[in-house]
Design a protein that fits this description.
single chain; mainly alpha; 3 domains; three-stranded mixed sheet; two-stranded antiparallel ribbon; globular; RT_dom; Rev_trsase/Diguanyl_cyclase
C-alpha cells in the first residue's frame, strides 16, 4: 500500500507526477532553459559571461526549490551536479552555486538520463562506461556458449542483439563520437560481442565479422536511429524541438564553414537528411492522426480511402 507518493513502476505514475509538478518551472527567466523527464531536471544557461551565468543558474535553482516546497517536495543538494561546458574542457574547481545553504561545486561531468555528459561533450566517460557494461553482458554470453558444444548462429545473434546491442543503442545518436579513436573504441565493443556470439577468433578480420553477422557499423546504425527520431519529430513532434534541431544545424554549418575539418554530429546529419526529403514526409502535424478520430471509429471501424 502507498500512503504518500506514487508506486514505483505503476502505469499512471509518470502522468500523475507530471500533472502534480506542472508548475515547478513557473516564473522562470527567459535566459534559463529547463529539460525535465519525470523527477530528473536539468537547468542550463548559455552565455559568454561566466559570473552572469552562475547568478542566473542559482536564481533558477532557488525558484525551482521554492516551487517544489509549495508542493511539499524537496530538492536534494547531495544529488545536484554543476557542470560548466566549454570547448577547452577547463574545470574551475572554485566555481560553485548555493542550493539550500549547501555549496555545489563545479564538476567535470554529470549523468543525466543514463548518459554521462562530460564538460567537453566528447562522451569519453560514457563510452568507457558502455565498454564495461558490454563486458559484463559478454561474459554471460560466454557462459551460455560454453555449457554445450555451442549456440546456434541465429540464437547467438539474437542473444547479442538483446544483451549487447541493446546497451549500445540507448542514446547512440546522442553520444556517438566524432573522434576517430573513440569511434574505434566503440566499434571494438561491438566486435567483441559478435566474436563471442559467433565463436570467431581474435585474428578474424573485422570486415569478415560484419559481413557474416549482417550487422552494420555503429556509426551507420546511429545515423539510422537518428533519422527515425528526426522523421518522427518533423512529422509529429513539438515545434520547439524542431526549432532546436534547426539551431543545431545552423550552428554546425557555421562551425563547418570556419573549420572544413569539423565533423558534424550524427543528429545534425540526420536532421539535414530529413529536411532534404521533407516533401516525402508531408506537412508537420501536432499529433498523430489516430488521436483526432472518434472513439467509436477507432474501436469499431476505421474508414479507408
Amino acid at each position: 500500500r502507498v500512503y504518500k507518493g506514487l508506486p514505483q513502476g505503476a502505469v499512471l505514475s509518470p502522468i500523475l507526477y507530471a500533472l502534480y509538478t506542472n508548475q515547478i518551472t513557473k516564473n522562470m527567466d527567459e535566459r534559463v532553459q529547463i529539460v525535465q523527464f519525470a523527477d530528473d531536471i536539468a537547468i542550463y544557461v548559455q552565455g559568454g559571461d561566466r559570473f552572469e551565468n552562475k547568478i542566473n543558474l542559482e536564481v533558477a535553482v532557488h525558484r525551482v526549490a521554492k516551487n517544489l516546497a509549495v508542493l511539499n517536495l524537496n530538492l536534494a543538494p547531495q544529488k545536484t551536479k554543476l557542470v560548466e561546458f566549454s570547448r577547452s574542457g577547463y574545470c574551475d574547481n572554485n566555481l560553485y552555486i548555493n542550493v539550500k545553504k549547501c555549496r555545489v561545486y563545479n564538476d567535470r561531468g554529470a549523468r543525466f538520463l543514463g548518459i554521462w555528459l562530460d564538460n567537453k561533450l566528447r562522451f569519453e566517460k560514457h563510452v568507457s562506461d558502455i565498454r564495461g557494461r558490454v563486458n559484463k553482458a559478454n561474459n554471460i554470453m560466454k557462459y551460455i556458449s560454453g555449457i554445450s558444444k555451442g549456440v546456434e548462429v541465429n540464437t547467438a545473434l539474437m542473444l547479442y542483439k538483446s544483451m549487447v546491442r541493446s546497451v549500445l543503442d540507448y542514446g547512440l545518436y546522442i553520444y556517438s563520437p566524432n573522434i576517430k579513436s573513440l569511434q574505434l573504441n566503440l566499434e571494438r565493443t561491438q566486435f567483441l560481442g559478435i566474436r563471442t556470439a559467433l565463436g570467431y577468433r581474435n585474428s578474424t578480420p573485422n570486415n569478415v565479422i560484419i559481413a557474416e553477422s549482417k550487422v552494420v557499423l555503429l556509426r551507420e546504425r546511429a545515423l539510422t536511429l537518428a533519422k527515425n527520431f528526426c522523421s518522427k519529430i518533423y512529422k509529429y513532434g513539438e515545434s520547439s524541438i524542431r526549432i532546436s534541431l534547426d539551431n543545431l544545424k545552423n550552428k554546425e554549418m557555421w562551425a563547418k564553414y570556419r573549420n572544413p575539418l569539423y565533423n558534424k554530429s550524427v543528429l545534425c546529419e540526420a536532421w539535414e537528411c530529413v529536411r532534404r526529403y521533407s516533401d516525402r514526409l508531408g506537412c508537420s502535424k501536432e499529433s498523430f492522426e489516430i488521436w483526432n478520430m472518434d472513439y467509436s471509429m477507432i474501436t469499431n471501424r476505421i474508414d479507408i480511402d
